């Protein structure tokens, strides 16, 4: 069995959504413009580190979806998103704060960790490189709103960075957040994960896998009304037995054979 950060995170968000996604094979349709653009943007970033024309690469990748029926955020269009992306790439090049010495081996790294015989944990890291001269795990994020930086130290609680630090033993972790807005902005967020945090994350993984393998999939979004997490959960149509909601947002795939692939969605 192969586990991943996405699986652990999904189970902790709501065990029923884990069952729907990883056991029954339901997946969200790839119609969210933000998600599709994020993948195109990461391809352009890789081109930048290889010394290629990253603006052209972004255009080419994004052009594949020009006529597609994507769901855009308020005020966004295909052209606006592309313009913002190109501006962000230009800013990133000017800042020159991130360096990847060997793009072939330091981008999109697949890391494996054996948990026990027949059970392993897999992670895909966006990059291991230098941010402001410090060697770090680096995650790229594209978003339409700034990430919160308050209170100080918040980033050290980010479960994805904790997971990647636990997987690699690397303490220095960072997120480079590309904020698409009227005046595009890049946030360079960095923190240090302690040994104790890595150890605790390992226990969290063990506990969660024990619950998964015990077949405990009771529904709970973990958030109280009126901020009910069910309202933004892609599986709500299944829980409410609303076929029209299921058809609008989900497709059913092969189940848990491709579990680790949705690491690329994050
Ligand atoms: S709709 Fe609510 S209960 Fe159902 S899977 Fe999603 S979060 Fe869980």
Describe the fold and architecture.
- With 266 residues, the protein is of the alpha+beta class.
- It folds into 2 domains: 1-23 and 97-266, Lambda Exonuclease, Chain A (Alpha-Beta Complex); 31-95, no CATH class.
- Helices cover 40% and strands 23% of the residues.
- The chain contains 10 helices and 9 strands.
- Strand 7 (172-179) and strand 8 (185-192) form a beta hairpin.
- The chain is globular, with a radius of gyration of 19 Å.
- The protein starts with a strand and ends in a 14-residue tail after the last strand.
- 27% of the residues are buried.
- Residues 258-266 have low confidence and may be disordered.
- The protein binds iron/sulfur cluster.
- The site of iron/sulfur cluster has 12 residues, from helix 2 and helix 9.
